[in-house]
Design brief:
236 residues; Rossmann fold; 9-stranded mixed β-sheet
Length: 236
């Protein structure tokens, strides 16, 4: 990887970090790829609701996944110009088909990247990004092997919900009543392996003490279990 540096995770292995650019149609999207030594899987982050790859919440989760031996790609689904427009209109963040098309292209790019090729892929989706993750999983069942949704608007995936095959973990704050209800209704439409984990007293952004750490550990353990047990995993 270019522009990379080696760090050491708490488990004692090196983690290579690099800034990458992914061409999608006529635009280029910037991302941050982190790959631990002997990575056990790769996780693509799908941000939502006006967030970006610089979100401190998703970067915290990514750090925990890296220390658990999982590669991560945090990438913006919107260009800088699109983000500027979306800050004014909030339109693109709710255009799930648009976000999913880009996420599908990024997932296919990541699956053949030389630093993670051969690793099974999961997607971590937050807010509206979770809906895009579910649509992507429905469209690319051969590629997406596990999903985690953090405070996700899974209901916005619509008709794609019934076609998702990858095991899904929904993490919702106990105080995030509206999103909790929407996730329960979405689960009823799904046929894949699915699990709902409620973080007690946590709100939509999991800002309460210890809440985001709980999210991170749940996500790490889900991805490690489901990606390692997915059919066709090749040793690296």
């Amino acid at each position: 990887m270019s522009q990379s540096k080696s760090l050491h995770g708490s488990a004692g292995f090196a983690i290579e970090h690099a800034t990458v650019t992914v061409a999608v149609d006529s635009i280029r999207l910037e991302g941050d790829l982190s790959v631990p030594t002997a990575a056990k899987g790769a996780v693509l982050f799908a941000h939502g609701s006006g967030s970006s790859r610089h979100s401190p919440r998703n970067r915290y989760v990514a750090d925990v996944l890296n220390e658990g031996g999982l590669a991560t790609l945090l990438i913006d689904l919107l260009t800088a110009d699109e983000q500027e427009v979306d800050l004014q209109t909030a339109h693109l963040r709710f255009d799930i088909p648009f976000l999913a098309r880009r996420l599908e292209a990024i997932a296919e790019w990541l699956s053949i990247h030389p630093d993670v090729r051969g690793l099974k892929l999961g997607i971590f989706g937050a807010s509206t990004g979770a809906a895009a993750a579910l649509v992507t999983a429905a469209e690319l069942p051969h590629l997406v092997r596990a999903i985690v949704s953090r405070g996700g608007r899974s209901d916005l995936a619509g008709g794609s919900l019934a076609r998702v095959q990858a095991p899904l973990l929904l993490i919702v704050g106990g105080a995030d009543h509206v999103v909790l209800d929407l996730n329960r209704k979405a689960m009823a439409q799904m046929h894949c392996e699915k699990q709902l984990q409620i973080v007690p007293a946590a709100g939509h952004l999991f800002e309460e003490q210890g809440a985001l750490q709980k999210v991170s550990v749940l996500a790490r353990d889900w991805f490690l279990e489901k990606l390692l047990n997915a059919p066709g995993v090749r040793a690296r």
